[in-house]
Amino acid sequence: MTSTQGFYSGRVFPWLNDKLNADPELQRLRAEALAPARGRVVEIGFGTGLNMPHYPKAVQSIVAIDPSSGMRARAEARIGASHIPVQFILGAAEQLPLPDAQFDTAVSVLTLCTVADVGRVLAELRRVLRDGGQLLLMEHGLSDDDRVARWQQRLNGMQRVVACGCNLNRRIADLVCANGFQFDSLRQFFVPKMPRTHGWVTLGVATKG
Hints:
alpha/beta; 6 helices
């Protein structure tokens, strides 16, 4: 990684990510996605902690996983302001340094678009979830609208560069179902006022199959 790339991913992108996610509708969707959270939670792609204000009182503790030290630095204030104990682990979701069957809830918000190996990440989440544990999702991905999907495929290379590995062309619900989960609830829709190439959202609750 060059120093320029390191500065962008470590300093600029965490700030930019916060700005892009300040949209009130995205905040409302975060709250909706996290409402069922309970017990011990593992959140992958924790980022700068934008989910922290939306966790309900039923959550006992959170283990936060993120590979970016720049994201962790911006997350410190939100972690410090939380009434929920948070343990931040700097690492990748493909190899969680966590024991089997210890968590009631796993959370992935705008993260499966970016991880290197979606199948491996989902396998790790299944491993650390207890029987009956739930996976809460709010993800953007490849649209069911063919015209939008074609544009997503065209723009994907540029997206990966400017958004530090984020992909527009992953069919999130299909990937979740193909990797050992089944949906208890699922909604897929375009977020109002967002570009359609970036605003096709999968929001749902899935359990281990």
